[in-house]
């Protein structure tokens, strides 16, 4: 069976913090997904996953708790745990610039990979402990904000006993993902004492990787990518979304194109007998000798052209708001 993981990077907006937005409003825009016509954040995502029998993986960033306190982190975690979904560790180190009491003595950096190994251990340990204090079970997986991890990140995770990392996205390799891994890696592979589970994706044109992110692939690309992975016997197919991804970029309107993609993904996972929804808590561990290299879904000019046209239309409707959504 190919394990399908729907992973949601769950985070407040550092740019809205920079602009002076209150954390309550940031939470409402970034997690609840509140608009004038309804809420389309993590609650909506859990509704759709649960309708198809899927348990989601929420990579929760506790770093805003350094500025706004532990109650904020508890408010991020509680709705996820109360519905039986999985909480794992996420970090956006941009938040350190506002922290008065820092785990790394005031040092700052945009990405976790900008820090020394010792500082990464301190930051990751703080994030893990903060999520646990907020009620989450001990996490066993991590994803770096901006995919900005490096090999020291894997070493730090190994020291902390966190088994899985899912920071490798071939579209970000070298900018700013600096995990040493062949770009052809599809299945999880042992690196520096942890299992690196790459973000899934397809070739959308020859030699150009397109990640399996809900806002990045059309329904046809996502479903065909999943089907290809199942047919090829892939270990897993890891999809990325965000807590605010069902909204327009200004977070004022629902983006019904992206919502349609999310719904279609859930339905495709439920319908394919070769695929089972999974989290990292129950993800099978491959043997150290298992090959991680597999062919991805080949490029199709027709699929790519359709997505480009579809997203152009969606930009007019949902981003610019030129027509009623």
Please explain how this structure is put together:
This protein is an alpha/beta fold. The protein has a single domain, classed as Alpha-Beta Barrel (TIM Barrel). Helix content is 36%, strand content 17%. The protein is built from ten helices and 13 strands. It has helices spanning 14-18, 23-32, 42-51, 65-68, 70-81, 117-133, 151-160, 219-231, 256-271, 301-319, and strands at residues 2-10, 34-35, 38-39, 57-60, 86-91, 141-144, 164-165, 189-191, 194-196, 201-205, 208-211, 236-242, 275-277. Strands 1, 4, 5, 6, 7, 8, 9, 12 and 13 form a nine-stranded mixed sheet that branches. Strand 8 (189-191) and strand 9 (194-196) form a beta hairpin. Helix 6 (117-133) crosses helix 7 (151-160) and helix 8 packs parallel to helix 9. The radius of gyration is 19 Å and the shape is globular. The mean pLDDT is 95.
Brief digest:
The protein has helices at 14-18, 23-32, 42-51, 65-68, 70-81, 117-133, 151-160, 219-231, 256-271, 301-319, and strands at 2-10, 34-35, 38-39, 57-60, 86-91, 141-144, 164-165, 189-191, 194-196, 201-205, 208-211, 236-242, 275-277. It is 36% helix and 17% strand. The chain is α/β, with parallel strands linked by helices.
Furnish the topology, listing elements before pairings.
Layout lengths: L1 E9 L3 H5 L4 H10 L1 E2 L2 E2 L2 H10 L5 E4 L4 H4 L1 H12 L4 E6 L25 H17 L7 E4 L6 H10 L3 E2 L23 E3 L2 E3 L4 E5 L2 E4 L7 H13 L4 E7 L13 H16 L3 E3 L23 H19 L6
Parallel strand pairs: 1-4, 1-12, 1-13, 4-5, 5-6, 6-7, 7-9
Antiparallel strand pairs: 2-3, 8-9, 10-11
Helix pairs in contact: 6-7, 8-9
């Amino acid at each position: 069976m190919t394990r399908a993981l729907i992973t949601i990077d769950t985070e407040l907006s550092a740019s809205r913090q920079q602009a002076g937005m209150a954390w309550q409003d940031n939470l409402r825009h970034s997690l609840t997904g509140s608009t004038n016509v309804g809420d389309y954040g993590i609650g909506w995502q859990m509704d759709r996953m649960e309708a198809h029998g899927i348990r989601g993986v929420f990579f929760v960033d506790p770093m805003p708790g350094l500025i706004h306190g532990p109650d904020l982190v508890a408010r991020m975690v509680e709705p996820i745990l109360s519905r039986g979904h999985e909480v794992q560790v996420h970090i956006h180190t941009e938040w350190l610039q506002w922290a008065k009491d820092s785990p790394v003595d005031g040092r700052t950096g945009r990405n976790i990979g900008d820090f020394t190994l010792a500082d990464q251990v301190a930051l990751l340990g703080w994030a893990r402990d903060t999520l646990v204090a907020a009620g989450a079970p001990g996490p066993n997986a991590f994803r770096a904000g901006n995919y900005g991890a490096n090999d020291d990140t894997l070493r730090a995770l190994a020291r902390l006993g966190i088994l899985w990392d899912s920071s490798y996205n071939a579209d970000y390799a070298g900018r700013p993902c600096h995990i040493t891994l062949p770009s052809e890696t599809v299945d999880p592979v042992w690196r520096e004492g942890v299992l690196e589970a790459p973000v899934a994706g397809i070739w959308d044109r020859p030699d150009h990787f397109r990640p399996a992110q809900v806002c990045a692939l059309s329904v046809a690309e996502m479903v065909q990518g999943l089907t290809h992975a199942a047919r090829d016997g892939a270990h897993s197919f890891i999809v990325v979304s965000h807590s605010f991804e069902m909204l327009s970029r200004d977070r004022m309107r629902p983006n019904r194109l992206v919502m349609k993609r999310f719904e279609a993904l859930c339905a495709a996972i439920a319908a394919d007998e070769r695929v089972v929804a999974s989290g990292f808590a129950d993800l099978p561990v491959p043997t150290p000798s298992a090959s991680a290299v597999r062919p991805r879904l080949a490029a199709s000019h027709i699929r790519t052209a359709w997505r480009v046209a579809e997203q152009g239309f969606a930009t007019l409707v949902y981003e610019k708001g030129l027509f009623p959504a």
